[in-house]
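Hi U.,

Before I forget, here's the chain from the pilot set. I'm dumping it here mostly so it's searchable later in email.
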Amino acid sequence: MKNMLFLLALLPLLSAAQTVSCSDYKTGEFVYPNNANKVSLRKETTQESYNDGKLEAVWNVKWLSDCKYELVCTKRLKDDSPFQLGDKMVATILETDDSCYTFSLTVFNSLHPEGFEVPNGKMCRK
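Structure:
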């Protein structure tokens, strides 16, 4: 009986919790919370990367699953960009909340064709 009362007390908390699916982040305008000058504008099949309002790169977007997507660099506008045409990144959304998601990222390029992991990142809706 005690357990039943405890569960009933938790019920309002559980019903108020929102579940945010990864698909909520497939399109939109996103910022890095630790660097609001960097903005990504993601559409169905492309993502544009901006820094201080200037377009730096364009990426082809391919969703591999509900929470995993691939970006391939199709255009770079800065000579000192760390990315080259054809470089690929695979992002996996690990956690979501109301307006942000945390992701892991693997980068594939000519120096690392097998890919290398970078520290987890976070993006938020602008």
